[in-house]
Design goal:
By secondary structure, this protein is of the alpha/beta class. Helix content is 34%, strand content 25%. It has helices at residues 12-15, 42-49, 107-111, 114-127, 144-155, 167-176, 189-196, 212-219, 242-248, 257-263, 265-280, 297-306; strands at 2-6, 16-20, 30-39, 66-69, 75-78, 90-94, 99-100, 135-139, 159-164, 180-183, 202-207, 221-229, 251-254, 288-293, 312-316. The radius of gyration is 19 Å and the shape is globular. The model is unreliable at 320-325 (pLDDT under 50).
């Protein structure tokens, strides 16, 4: 089968190689899946660069999230078992963690539902306890993680402010339903949030960026506001001034979704049921901006790493119309 492999860590376009390799053999408790679609996540770029908290043995295939087909014909969502990641024709995955792919979503959309939306749901509902009528500030609102948070916030009845970088991403955020879109390249985020909320500020800030995004969230946090930290795509890990959190009376909350999968798998299943319901109702739908063939996966990972994309890029190994839906 064909699979992208990393023999030496580095930038995705240079480090990823498309090779012919044997199909992976399932270990104990695993199943083999045919990959219908593999979503490109920022952690894939970090894996290739050797900067992720998990460092699989070289050589490895990146790709942490797929929609696949079981040998008995079930369409499922899975997190492949590294080093046999999703940018390949076949993967192995833990049988106990397979989730049914929602019928309302096609393969590419289903592949993009899992990590980003689970992270958003746990971040907004379990950590921040977002309430109907509150104001939610979402950084990188046109990206894969941010667009999921925007949709989940709207589904929860929140007023959503989306922060983006550039006119093209602003249009995407508007189409997602943001009540206000702020272009951080031309506007003062803090001033616009305070103006829009009549000085109240953001009740919840959802931050997958870090750096200046976190600083802005802290400055415009409402009384009893909550800042949810889900990643550092901007490349800078902020050092919060805890005296500022004390004086303004807001909370800083970390969200590591993988810990729920390890420590509370029943909650992950319940969340998936809720996401499936929301998808069936049309309240959420992964923003798949591009479906790319397997031979362009390295370029797709590089573009996500560079922050030049909107929504989700999804790798579709088979271009046979009869092979995927």
């Amino acid at each position: 089968m064909q699979a992208w492999r990393v023999h030496t860590t580095g930038e995705p376009r240079e480090a990823m190689r498309l090779e012919e390799v044997p199909e992976p053999v399932p270990g104990e408790g695993e199943v083999r899946l045919r990959v219908l679609a593999a979503n490109v996540n920022f952690p894939d770029a970090l894996l290739v660069r050797g900067q992720y908290q998990i460092r699989p043995t070289l050589p490895f295939t990146p790709g942490v999230e797929i929609c696949g087909l079981t040998e008995d014909g079930r369409r499922v969502i899975a997190n492949p078992s590294l080093p046999h990641g999703g940018f390949a024709e076949y993967v192995t995955a833990p049988a106990r963690a397979l989730l049914p792919a929602p019928g309302a979503l096609d393969d590419a959309e289903a592949a993009a539902l899992h990590i980003g939306y689970q992270t958003g749901w746990f971040g907004l509902h379990r950590r921040a306890r977002l309430q109907r009528g509150e104001t939610l500030l979402v950084h990188a609102a046109a990206g894969g993680v941010g667009s999921a948070a925007v949709q989940l916030g709207k589904a929860a009845g929140a007023t959503v402010i989306g922060v983006v970088g550039g006119k093209a991403k602003a249009r995407t955020a508007e189409e997602l339903g943001c009540d206000l879109v702020i272009d951080r390249t031309t506007e003062d985020v803090v001033a616009r949030v305070k103006e829009f909320t009549g000085g109240h500020g953001a009740d919840v800030a959802y931050d997958p960026v870090g750096g200046d995004a976190y600083t802005a969230s802290a400055k415009c946090a409402a009384f009893e506001g909550r800042i949810v930290i889900v990643g550092f795509a901007g490349g800078t890990v902020p050092a919060p001034a805890l005296n500022h959190a004390l004086i303004k009376n807001y909370s800083v909350l970390g969200l590591h979704w993988g810990l729920y999968a390890a420590k509370d798998p029943a909650a992950v299943l319940a969340c998936h049921d809720e996401l499936t319901r929301l998808a069936a109702d049309g309240a959420i739908k992964p923003l798949v901006s591009e479906r790319v063939p397997l031979d362009r996966a390295a370029d797709a990972v590089q573009r996500v790493a560079d922050g030049t994309t909107t929504g989700r890029l999804v790798v579709v190994p088979s271009q046979d119309p009869g092979a995927a839906r």
